[in-house]
Structure formats: C-alpha cells, structure tokens
Amino acid sequence: MGYDIDLDPKQHIYSHARAFTLHSEYVLVGGVDPDPGMRAAFSRSYGVLAYETAEAALVEQAPELVVIAVPTSLHGLTLETVLKFSSVKVVLCEKPLSYDLAESQCMARACQKRGVQLVVNYMRRSDPAVIEIGRRFVSGEIQGPVKGLVWYGGGLIHNGSHFFNLLRYWLGEMIDFQILGSAKPLGNDDAEVDVSIQFEGGKVLFLSTMDRDFAHYEVELMADNGRLRYERAGHRVTWQGLEQHPVFSKSKSIANETELIESGMNKFQYNVASQVEELFAGRVSHVATGEDAVSTLEALTRIIGKI
User: Fold this and answer.
1) Does the first or last residue of the chain, that is N or C, have fewer Cβ atoms within 10 Å of its Cβ?
2) What is the pLDDT of residue 42?
3) pLDDT at 214
4) Do 42 and 33 meet the contact criterion of CB atoms below 8 Å apart?
5) Does pLDDT of 4 surpass 90?
6) How far apart are the C-alpha atoms of 196 and 208, rounded to whole Å?
7) Residue 28 binned pLDDT confidence (cut-offs 50, 70, 90)
8) Greater pLDDT, 24 or 247
9) What region, left, alpha or beta, does residue 143 occupy, with left being phi > 0 and alpha being psi -120 to 50 degrees?
10) Cβ-based burial of 237 (10 A; exposed 0-12, middle 13-18, buried ≥19)
C-alpha cells in the first residue's frame, strides 16, 4: 500500500499509489492485494476499489498503465497476466525485473511483441538532480574521464543495481570489471561484493557496507574540473569546481564554494510518474526502459558469475 501512508503528502511521495493519486495527469483506478485487510486499508486511504487478483482488476478497470510491485520472483508471472489485456499501454515494474537474466530478457521481448512500453523503477533516473548531471556530462560541463566511489548495501543486484544503472546513465556502458577480495553470497542470485568497474566515461569502485547494521548509499566522482557528490542516497547532491590553490599559485584545488543541485528524492515516485507521462506524450523521457534494465542485469550477472 505504501510506506508513506502516515507521512505528510506535501513532503513525502514514496509510493506508487500516492504518486498517481496526487499527479494531475493520472487517475488511480484501483489496487490489488491478496490480503483482505490490506485491501480495506488501501480503499480507505485512496478511495478506490482494491481487488484480490490482478485479473479481476484488469477486467473491471481496463487501465492503460499497470504497476507491478510484487516480490521479484513473481514479476514474470504477473507480467504474463497483465499482457493478456489490450488496454495496457505501459507497465511500470519494480527493480530488478528478475534475478534470472533469461527471464528478464523474455519479459522485455514479450512487452515489445505486444507493443507495450516496459519501464523499470530505477527511480533515481527521474530525479531532477540526476537529469541535470546527465546534461552536464553530455555538454562537457563535467569533464571526464572520472574516477569514483560508490557505497551500497543489500546486494549488488537488489540495491547496487540502482547505482550501476545511475552510473551507466551518466558514464555509458561497462567495459570491464575487477572483483576485489572476497564476496558474501546472498542466496543463489545475489551477493555483497567489492568491484572496480570501468565504464566508457571512467572507473568507479563499488564498495559494499557488508555486515554493517546501517544503510549508506553514496557516490563521489572526481572529474577533470571538479568533484560531484551524491549523498544521503541522493537527497543531497553537490558540485565543487576548481580554484587556484591559496598558497601554490601554479596548482589548483577543489573549490570551497559548493553548488547545491536541487534534488527531488523526497518525492521520488512522483518524479517517476512525471517521466512516465513524458513517455506517454512521446516526449524525451529519462526513465529506465525494459531494455536498459536488461542491460543492467546482464552486466551485474557477469560480475556475480565471477565470484
């Protein structure tokens, strides 16, 4: 139903239901949950019907957009059900598409065959700060190649994929990688691993907060003309250019002056809804497509396969 249900909607938009309820370009028509208590709570909170099965909701409501936010192991089966209904034009699926690369490829192909646009909820791609940084990389305002560091936790595929997908958006494709030290397997499909990744636009070291009892998600990139910091999981994004060293006149250093690049992570799901609307309208959209998500999983599966 959404972990923002008890939070101020003017300050926090973290769930799909709240995002589509508040967004002027959408009408929320229903939800699905096998639990009757959750269905009742959903209907009370959003004033729409909640259904026991996806089939019942799709038959009665004929939506154009469907969100798949079930456990990852059920993504493929749920998508198969959704694609049976001709009203559906866009599917927004939680990440990762699947822990199985072959299944994720099949999911993307199935959507393409049906003419349905598949979007994967790598929500940072829709954040205003991330889009602005991407623009600066393209324009040359941030000069590469870069060297960087990513802190992540909760599995390279499950959570690290957010930051791999983000850096792929900024820096291009993965060219090569090198695993550093030992890894901690997380079941059969994921692992905590330290890995150095060479992207087209620079080299970035991914470090896991393995076995720490706190969450820490952060990116730091050193460019030829300054430093980018993506802190507090993206809630604070800053850029520092270069300045003449105060003592050594022939040298430059990172400037004390810090530019705060406006982030919208307090309403990240609303930002995704806005970017999906751009897709509906045929305009430039920064969402992660199914093909993009498959490429992310292909790269991370290669890394996990070398452990």
Assistant:
1) C
2) 94
3) 86
4) yes
5) no
6) 12
7) very high
8) 24
9) beta
10) buried
202 belongs to a structural domain:
yes
**Structural domain contains residue 56:** no
Rounded CA-CA distance 300/307 in Å is: 11
Residue 177 DSSP one-character state: E
**Any idea how long the chain is?**
307
**CA distances, 92 to each of 64, 146, 241, 287 (Å):** 11, 32, 37, 10
Tokens of 5: 């249900």
Number of domains in the chain: 1
User: Domain of 239?
Assistant: 124-264
Q: Which residue reads 């004033």 in tokens?
A: 47
The Cα 125–Cα 229 span in angstroms is 16
- Residue whose pair of structure tokens reads 């490829």 in the numeric block: 105
- State pLDDT tens for residues 57-95: 999 999 999 999 999 999 999 999 999 999 999 999 999
Structure tokens at 98: 């699947």
The alpha carbon torsion through 282, 283, 289, 292 (nearest 10 deg) reads 130
pLDDT digits (tens, 9 = 90+) for 260-297: 999 999 999 999 999 999 999 999 999 999 999 999 99
Higher pLDDT, 244 or 56: 56
Query: Which residues are CB-neighbours of 148 under 8 A, at least 6 positions away?
Result: 167, 202, 203, 204, 205, 219, 220, 221, 222
Question: Which residues are within 8 A (CB) of 17 and not within 5 positions of it... i.e. 6 or more apart?
Answer: 1, 2, 28, 31, 42, 45, 46
Residue 159 lies in a domain: yes
Domain CATH number, residue 187: 3.30.360.10
Residue type, 43: S
Residue 104 sits at φ, ψ, to 5 deg, of -65, -40
- Residue 235 placed within a domain: yes
